[in-house]
Amino acid sequence: MRESPGTEERGHALVRDHTVYTCVTGSRAFGLATEGSDTDRRGVFVAPTPLYWRFDKPPTHVTGPLDEQFSWEVERFCTLALRANPTVLECLHSPLVEYADAVGRELLALRGAFLSRRAEASFRGYAAQQLSRLEATVRAQGEPRWKHAMHLVRLLISCRDLLRTGRLEIGVGEHREALLAVRRGERGWDAVRAWMRTLHEEIDAALPRSPLPEEPDRARVEDFLIRVRGLTAAAPRPA
User: Fold this and answer.
1) Does an H or E element contain 20, and which?
2) Per-residue pLDDT tens digits for 12-30
3) Would the pLDDT of 3 be above 70?
4) How many CB atoms within 10 Å of residue 73?
5) In 102-188, which ranges are continuous DSSP H helix?
6) Residue range(s) defining the domain that contains residue 134
7) Nearest C-alpha neighbor of 159 from the set 192, 190, 223, 205
8) Rounded to an integer, what distance in angstroms lies between the CA atom of residue 118 and that of residue 168?
9) What are phi and psi of 226, to 5 degrees?
10) Residues 49 and 79 grouped into a single domain
């Protein structure tokens, strides 16, 4: 469906004027950046409540206006985080925070409310999709896209450690050199697949003993969202 004229501009205006949180994600946040790595920026904006009284609702997400920038409206962001979406949770736990106003700081303080054992299924589901694409590339070209293979291993490490500790640490720490060796194609696909299988076994072992709750704290997150909507209910209505 073709967007109506001005839709992109209105989305960019929401990001410029109503952002509550921005951070850098991707390789730079993971500690895996190389000389040519992009700077991926992710953020959260709060659309003023009066915009929801119109037939045309605010966007759930916006690409831009900066290069490599993507933002979610706060409700969509919270919904995905409650589902343990890996990309959203990593955004919320990035060590490279560029901006957070009072609402953004409250959102950061809620990080623990989003974490639950749902992460096991969510992270592994995403990993399974990526593995399917990698194996298709191997069949077609003889080897995978090594950068994607590296990030798949990183995701499984993150899932395992989250289940073990109850904390999401997105920096790769001691695994940096081993992961960069995967990116350079130095370990070979069979060795990388064996590493993945070991990580899946470790995830299986960690899940029953995980300190994470079975479900996220949906009520606490919803209370936050209701208060945020209330704060912007009296905002001037844009033309």
Assistant:
1) strand 19-25
2) 999 999 999 999 999 999 9
3) no
4) 23
5) 102-109, 111-114, 118-141, 146-165, 176-183
6) 118-209
7) 205
8) 13
9) -60, -45
10) yes
Q: pTM, whole model, 2 decimals?
A: 0.91
Identity of the residue numbered 61: H
Shared domain check, 220 and 175: no
Give the H/E segment covering residue 157: helix 146-165
Render pLDDT for 188-217 as a digit per residue (tens, 0 to 9): 999 999 999 999 999 999 999 999 999 999
106 shares its domain with 130 = no
**The dihedral sign for the CA sequence 76, 212, 228, 92:** negative
Residue with tokens 């001691």: 174
The residue with tokens 């929801």 is 52
Token representation of residue 187: 């370990």
Q: Which residues pair with 72 in a beta bridge?
A: 44, 61
Give the integer Cα–Cα distance in Å for 40 and 70. 8
Question: Amino acid identity of 105?
Answer: R
**Cβ–Cβ under 8 Å, residues 169 and 93:** yes
